Structures are given as C-alpha cells and as structure tokens.
Predict the structure.
Amino acid sequence: MAAVGDFEPFSRETLENPYPFYDRMRAERPVFEAAPGVFFVTTYDLIHEVLRDTERFSSARGAAFLNFQGEAGLAPPMAPSEATRAIFARGVPPRDTLLSADPPAHTRYRSLVNRSLSPRRVAKLEPIARQVVTELIDGFIDDGRVELVGQFSMMVPLTVVAITLGVPRSDLQRYKEWSVKSVAVLAGRVSEEERIEGARASVELQRYLARNVEAARADPQDDLIGDLITAHLRGGAGDDDHRELDTPEIVSILNQLLVAGQETVNYLIASLTLLLLRNPEVLAEVQADPSLIPAMVEEGVRIESPISALGRFVVSDTELGGTALPAGSRLVALFGCANRDPKRFPQPERFDIHRENLRDHVGFGAGPHYCVGAALARMETRVAFEELFRRLRNLRLAPGNDFTHQYNFIFRALKTLHLEFDKA
Ligand code: HEM
C-alpha cells in the first residue's frame, strides 16, 4: 500500500490523529493513490470540483460508502455473501433515491425531501428537540456526572428522528438497536457475523418503516412521512411523471435520513464538547453569550468533520488536479482534510468562532448532495448546547477518559466522554 512519508493511510495511529498526514498529502500529493485504484482528494478546491461534477464523479452503485478493512485499506465494493443476500431478499426492495443516485433521478427525489426538511419543518421540530434534550438532562443532572455519548449525544438525534418518523416511545429501544446495528456495518471493520446481524437489523427496520408508511397512508399528517406520502414526483417521462412515491422509495428515503442523521449529530455534540473543554476561553464566551452558539456549531463541524470521508466513482477516463484517473477508479473526498486547508482557513487548527468564512466548510458536503439535514443538525446541536449551558455549571472532564475514537474511516467518532459538572 502507498504511504506518504511515514504515514500508513489506514492505520489506527493515522486515523486517531490524521491531521499531520492530511497536511503532508495536501502539500505534496493533493490527489493521492492510497491503494490501487483508490484516490484520496485532499484540497478544498479539488473536493469542490469533485462534489459538483456529478457527470464525471458518480454517487451511483453505493459509491459514497467505502468498505474499510482496517490495516488492509479500502476494498472494492464487497459482494454480499449468500447469507446476507438471503436476509436482504426478505426486506423492502432497494431503491436509489438520494445518496446513491445521480441527477436527474437524484434531483427529483431531492426536491421532495428538501421540502420535508425545510426551515418551516425544522422550526416545528425545535420544541420536540428541546423536550428530548430536557428529559435527557433530567436523567443525569442529579448525579453530577455523565458519560456524554451514551447518555446524551447519541440519544438526542436518535429520539428526535424517531419522533419525527412516528416511532412511539414504547418502540424506541427496539428501534435504537436496529438503527445502531445497521449503521455500524456501513463504515467500521466488520466480521461476517456482524454483517449478518446488521443485515437482519436493516431488514427489521425497513419493514418497520414500511408498516408505518402503510398505516400513515390512510390519514397522512402534516409531518415528514405525510409529506412524502402526498408528494408528487415530477420530471419523469410518461407514467413516471407526476406520480406518488411507492413504499420502497419512501422507505429508502427514511432509511437514509435515519442513517445520515443519527450518528453524525451524536459525534458532533460529543467532539464539540471536548473541543470546548480544551478551549476554555471559547467555552466561557459562548456560555456568556448563547447567541454565539450557531457560530460555535459551524466551527465545530469544520474542525471536527464528523463525516471525514465519502466516496465517488470515476465514470470515464479523466484527470483531477493533474492526476490521471482511469474509469472505474474510486475517489475518497476527505472532508476533514479540506476543512483544514490553510489556503481557505488560515490557522486551520484554531477553534475560532469568529472566522469570517465560518460557513464555507465542506463538513456538510457541497453541490447536489449537500446535506439535506444540515438545518436539522444545526438546530439539534444548538438546542443541545443551549440547554447544557443553561443547566450545568463548571463543566469539566472526569477522570478515566482516554479520548480515543472509533477505528473507522468515514466517521470521526469519540467512543466515550466522561464529564463532571455542578447543577446550575
Ligand atoms: C453534523 C451532522 C451532519 C453532518 C456532518 C452531515 C454531513 C453530510 C455530508 C458530508 C453529506 C454529503 C454526502 C455526499 O456528498 O455524498 C450529507 C448528505 C446527506 N445528509 Fe447529512 N450530515 C449531518 C446531519 C444530517 C441529518 C440530521 C440528516 C437528516 C435527518 C442528514 C441527512 C442527509 C442525507 C439524506 C444526505 C444525502 C443527500 C443527498 O444525497 O442529496 N444529515 N450529510
């Protein structure tokens, strides 16, 4: 496998602290062949070029996700085993709707989902998010300590999205297990047993969502599922124009909202908390003036990049930044690397909530696949910190933290974060 300097691209050490490796690549090999046929794209400008050009760089065939196999690197898309194929055959038939579609099909679905997660819809969800956050804080505030990931940051998006998708409280535990297991197989290092478990969980979840969709068809509400049921897909030919979505299409969309919307926000809240504790002057500033929280969230997305990498495949022979790319190669857009490009963000390692170009980061992607849940993610994270700051004082690290991240190529995910605090 190729290396830059002493860095092994997929080793635990590199992934734990990728920033020196990123700096080296950006400066020396902006398009870097990390494994045969797998190219890392590292600079801010080149990543923009890739994300905006869907004709040359496709998201189809599941290109966004990479089969990360630890020290062995990135594998070509892995064929499902006989066992997982048999399990998926019992699920809802797959449809390429958002992350795995290219325009023009992507555009048709995307315009419907844009409406479902519009500022109006997100504003309606804010009281729900605040209620969820309040109840979670109620659950640990008298202890004076909390393991933030398990007790809070993971539960905030999970519960908000579950309520949004009409999952009753009594089903929350089941739903949590399915969604955690089905997300886990996407990006981590997984054995065949875990793959089978993940497939089972995905299928249960798909069927559960399909039942919710079917039940809601009788009486669609003014909510996310109701929107998708009553929406009309436009821009197709013949019978495909101006038609309603079928259940597999709606399930595909809901599934992606769930997968993309859950772990990301969890990781953002956790790593942003650690970042604040390591930058006490910023913590003091935002506590004193909560109107700065949105800027803090934005800078947190840039500096931590909870999704650090996603892929594309090269449609036909082309070049990028002077590097020849054969058709069929895979590109890996390193969002976390672009977000620390010093040409775009001077002193990129500084957690500076007053940067002029705060929102220029690519932590939510760019171009047609720009995160459709960005407004929801911003709202959930803002509300989480508004309530944490209001109710907890003297937030500090508890003994016993090791600050390690999951061994995962796509997500930047703190495993745990133990905190202590005083009650306000
Ligand atoms: C901090 C939190 C989040 C981060 C860092 C994040 C990041 C991203 C990124 C980088 C992309 C671009 C994918 C690509 O180019 O292939 C994306 C797309 C997407 N995100 Fe997010 N996301 C977050 C939260 C959410 C939430 C809360 C939801 C929904 C509930 C969501 C749903 C989606 C969906 C469905 C897509 C695919 C959009 C498309 O293909 O058109 N995300 N996100």
About this structure: DSSP finds 16 helices and 14 strands in the chain. The mean pLDDT is 92. Residues 172 and 394 are 32 Å apart (CA to CA).
